[in-house]
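New to this. Please check both lines:
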Amino acid sequence: MSKKFLEEYLYAPHGFRDYEPATYRLIKKIISTMEEIPLKYGYELYDGPIVERRILYEVKSGGEIVGEVFEVKGKSKEKLVLRPEMTPTLGRLIARMDQELVKPVRWATISRYFRDETPQRGRVKEFWQLNVDIIGLDSAYADAEVITILHDILIELGLKKTEFQIYVNDRRILEAVLKKLGITNIDEVYPILDKKDKLLQEELKKQLGKAGLKEKEIELLSLKFRKFDKYKEDILSQYKGNKEILKISKDLNQIRKNAFVRFLVEKGINESNAEKLFDISEIHGPLKEALFELEKYVSEFGVEHSVFEHIKELEEYLESFGVIDTIILDASIVRGFAYYTGIIFEAFDSESLIPRALAGGGRYDNLVSVLGGPQIPATGFGMGETVILEILKEKNRLQGVSIGIPEIGIRPLNRNTMKKAHEIAQILRKSGKHVLFMPPKGKLGKTIEHFAKRGVRYLVIVGEKDLEKQAVTIKDLETGEQEQIAIKELERYLNEIIKN
């Protein structure tokens, strides 16, 4: 074997991750929080197979996701793939179990998924994702509830209300607009709206290439331009002598418009309609105010006011849930999957340069019927751990995560005290403590050093002299202080000092 192969052999395949304990602790903290919040709202946990039939995604997820699946070869002739997302599996389950379910169904799951997409920051080929869904409730209340659960998860994970926003829109409004404009290839237009910021970034990369910048600098600067309001001063001060970048800063809105309109025209949309769609897609702001602006604008095309009923009802429920201050209407939000039919939403960090959503979802009222079941209203969202992990690291919000770190170490001083030390360890474990035991081999100082490196705070030393008094010695490895404690008081004592 070559040296190069052996070096590569030590690492996970490209786009996949190793989960050594320090990393897994952080991920476990995130996925545990994700799972805990839906349970507080009365959701039940479920799961499905990690391998699914390819046709399930061909029917309803859209072409992009089918192009990213990992195919699985088995002895059967079925075309199988590693599961890239959960919603089609959920639709299949609901279609099969429809008669025995008590509706509305509130289900949640957190599992691993696989997509063969290009790895980048916040995007990998294997990831955990939470899915939260309500099936059988045809009301904007359902959309508001799942959005509120998403809000609560972000808060519980450590983000402040000022640090994230949840963008909402309604596909029914967009569909009504497109029809009034005489646009028939709606399914081709949706992805363009969904990639609006990406189209801008690609255009910026081309223009920044003329400014004499290196590839990594171009990538970073194009991301900053996507959040120009936040990074304007940073860009202008850093590149005040670069005429090309100053020109881009001045012409940014026109560059955004040109990139978007040009792409729509290539899809057969006339330039006038493309410009109207751009103007609509730029409507963005606090839900109530932006909704008024959007309704006023599209009424000029003859769009009925009734198409706004659902999102107005959503606004009322979000206000009653107390989360309205984090909600933004963004008329360009579409969501890429083909199965969405109504309210759609995505959550983004307000500061990070990671160009991916923290979470996203929406209403998918036709999925169950397409998979052979009855027409059942449904809504929900998915949230992966990769983007939030990067953002929490960025903000230093994962300090002190102790999942899997033993609280207590136990060390008998010799073989004569081994049996009693084991008894004490088992008593503490049964009481819920995480206990690390080391046999009496080598010097005590080396054991203490090992315990400290493992994150143990309190060491129980079991020696013959202490046992004669029915006691043990407790050493605080952080302060170096130690004291003798009666064995019968040990559990209570440890509970108290760990609590404090």
User: Anything to note?
Assistant: The chain has a mean pLDDT of 89.
